[in-house]
Structures are given as C-alpha cells and as structure tokens.
Amino acid sequence: MFTRHRRLRRSSALRDLVRETELRTDDLIYPLFIKEGLSQKQEVSSMPGVFQLPLAEAIAEVEEASRLGIKAIMLFGIPEQKDAIGSQASAPDGIVQQALRSLKAACPEVLLIADTCLCEFTNHGHCGVLDGEEVDNDRSLERLVDVAVSQAKAGADIIAPSNAMDGYVAAIRQGLDQAGYTHIPIMSYAVKFASSFYGPFRDAGESAPAFGDRKTYQMDPANRLEALREAASDEREGADFLMVKPALPFLDVIREVRQQTALPLVAYHVSGEYAMIKAAAQAGWLDEAAVVKESLTSIKRAGADLIITYFAKQIAQEWQTKEDR
Ligand code: PBG
Question: Has residue 9 been placed in a domain?
Fold first, then answer.
C-alpha cells in the first residue's frame, strides 16, 4: 500500500481546488521613486523597467496602477539639495511632501505609504545624523520624528520608518500622536538586514553611503534570534505592521516572525531580487512571469500578508489581461 499524491494533481481544476496559497493584487505594494527637478523619466540601469519619475509622471503611474487594482504605493524621494541632516526630508515643500499632496488630490483611493528615512536626503548617504563617522541614534530619532510628522501633514496614510535606529517606533508614535495623527499607522521595517541585495536600490534612490556601510544599524544576515528581538521590541513600541526585508533569502525569518506576532506582516521583495530575475529573463534563461509568481507565492506561503515589490504593476497588468480574455 502506498499513497497516491498524484490523485489531487490530475487536472488544473483539481489543482485549483486544493491550492493553499493565493496571491492577490490587494496584497501588493508598489514602490515609486520620485526625483525633484527631473524633466523626463529615467530608467534605473540596474533595474530594467523601474524609473526615476518626475512628479507629473508619478501621478500618471499611480493612476494607471490604481486602474489595475493596486491599492497601495510606497514613496521614495530624491531631492535636489542634500545636506548633513537631510533637511529636505522634512521640508514642507520637499519632494516627498509635494508628491503626497499631489497624489492625494489625484488618486484619493490609493493608500500612500511614505518611506521615512534620511539616506536619500543626506550628503553622506547614511540613514541618520552623524557624530564623526558614527550614526548618532538619538539625534537621528529627532530628525526622523520631524520627517514622519511632515509626511503625515502632507497626506501620508501610513508612515514606514526604514532607518533602523533603536526606538524609532516609540519616538515616531509619540511624535505623530502629539501632532494629532493618532490615526496614522506605522509600518516598521522591523527586521532589516544589512543586505547586499539593496545595491540597485541605491542607484535608484541615489543613496549609497559615501563611506563605510550600514552594518552598525542594519542586521547581520546570519541572525534569526536577533530578528525575533527586533520584531518584539517594535511591536511593544506600537508598530501596526512589521516588515522583514529582503524577502526570498529570509523566508525562514518571515515564518518565525509570523509565528511570534499577530500583526500584519509585510515582506519587501527588494531591488536585488528584482534585478536578478530581470537579468536572467533578459538573457532568456528564465520564464520571467512564472518565476515572479513562484517567488511571490513562496513569500506568502512563508507567512507574509503583504509584499512590497517592483513587479506589482506588471503582475496586476498580467492578471487583468487574463481576465479580459
Ligand atoms: C533605506 C531603504 C533601503 C531600501 C528601502 N529603504 C536601502 C538601504 O537600506 O540602503 C532598499 C529597498 C530595495 O533594495 O529595494 N532607507
């Protein structure tokens, strides 16, 4: 006597019936890069199909994404002026604040998630304020609170701090509450590894550190227990969503955080993960659509509820074409 597993795989109808994990457009968050002073959209060379956008083009892009059923976008800004403390990140007329106001007016149905960090705005490319060559945790927190409050004021629906300082959730929660934004959720990049998969993002965001690396604030990829401590402290401090980043190299961590928390769990399928698939597909080595679907389904199966991915619009488009047929 042996078990006939193949009985449930005989037809696509049967396979549909017993499928355990389903991807939905509602689960996808689409990241966008908006660059101040740009006249034409500019493709990021290490991320084919991803562009730095002038504000007008960003509005068109979000309108199109919304028509395709995407409910949430993640905003990154690249300012014209950079300085030591990333002043433009919290300026009332900064590029992200301008984008939030324009997008809120043009596409009120789309959730606007603001990435809250300094690295695109500092002239040294680090995510916080420096003391010599060190990133000063507590002075960086003060800046981050200013950035978060200015983003909420400009219309952000969700604040997503990514600068990996200790205590940022508590500080931002308090800052938002005091400014009257008790209703604005915090999506914390709680488990953020110091990953080499962020390389292409730093081209897109013009945010590579001018010296050193981010290993004193982002996590060592070798550590899983530390990931659980990071997730637990952000939850205690009042995070409304927890994130694990990157996604595919850290599926075990996604699963373990899933088991520890009842909060919505987000995974960031990062720039390097995107670039690898695009490069292999361009060489004709992989079936892009199939690999993207398998990757994102695996991220959900591991335990993520939501996925931030540069493929979001492309997938939504594919699904819509299928429905039209
Ligand atoms: C930074 C930030 C980074 C990403 C999102 N927010 C980069 C970094 O830490 O250098 C990376 C996302 C990606 O690689 O797609 N604040």
Answer: no
